[in-house]
Amino acid sequence: EQRNPWCCLAWTLVIGTMNSLVFLINLLLMFVIFTIVLLPTIVVVYFGFQCHSQVLHSSARYCKSILDDNSSSALIILGFVIMSPLIVVAMAIYCSLARRLRLFMCFQPYSLAVYKGGKWCRYEGGGPCGCARGWNTQVKAWV
């Protein structure tokens, strides 16, 4: 049975807010994982650019005594070379963690706002969204 227009609007706002919150949690988790995994690349490229005479040319002691232009260029190249495998590792970690936490199962369809009596969980008991009992491991998040 369909809801009346005001109730439908209220439920749409609730579901939209919940889906936005789940999206922000996913985004925050992705940002933290990518920052931690890509930290070696960030550090290597930063020191390479900081000590290169054509870019920033810092007056720090380690730039004068250890890193010249050739070694700074090598650091920059090394940083960009190791970035690709680390991005793959970061994405694998994020996908594994999101699947383990069942974060994709928390997105709710807007049909819950239109029709009365809909279940808050699309699958019988799956995910941390109030329906974590007896989760079926064969259910895919994108179904």
TrEMBL record:
<keyword id="KW-0472">Membrane</keyword>
<keyword id="KW-1133">Transmembrane helix</keyword>
<comment type="similarity">
    <text>Belongs to the TMEM88 family.</text>
</comment>
<feature type="transmembrane region" description="Helical">
    <location>
        <begin position="21"/>
        <end position="49"/>
    </location>
</feature>
<keyword id="KW-0812">Transmembrane</keyword>
<dbReference type="GO" id="GO:0005886">
    <property type="term" value="C:plasma membrane"/>
</dbReference>
<dbReference type="GO" id="GO:0030165">
    <property type="term" value="F:PDZ domain binding"/>
</dbReference>
<protein>
    <submittedName>
        <fullName>TMM88 protein</fullName>
    </submittedName>
</protein>
<feature type="transmembrane region" description="Helical">
    <location>
        <begin position="74"/>
        <end position="95"/>
    </location>
</feature>
<dbReference type="InterPro" id="IPR033355">
    <property type="entry name" value="TMEM88"/>
</dbReference>
